[in-house]
Amino acid sequence: MLYxxxxxxxxxxxxxxxxxxxxxxxxxxxxxxxxxxxxxxxLPQEQPAQVLPALETKTTFEAxxxxxxxxxxxxxxxxxxxxxxxxxxxxxxxxxxxxxxxPLKSRNNRLLVYFFSSLDDRSLxxxxxxxxxxxxxxxxxxxxxxx
Length: 147
Fold this sequence. Notes:
By secondary structure, this protein is mostly helical. It has helices spanning 2-23, 27-31, 53-57, 67-79, 89-96, 109-121, 129-135.
């Protein structure tokens, strides 16, 4: 954990300062530390990682597309051949609302990720779209909720 690594470096540096202070008391006035021996007890304690509650509750892509926009995006997805089969606007709406009933296989996961990432870059979907996919248990090369 990065925080533990930094804490360890601070601790080791503090020990070195204590040793230097014992060897050369003049450092006490230069560094302006009042009590080097108590410095170790003043090191920050490691805090447990906290998960933001807002991230836990997101279960959709929060897309606010109009029907003409969905039709256009569906056309783009089909022209780019993102999925192994041609999809309809209704299927694309089901993907965005996480209500897809049947398996839908992607032809290329990189292209699918690029598509969702591009929507995210333009703030058109939830910026944590990967969490939405995980929460809805989409898996592998299929965009299908686990049953």
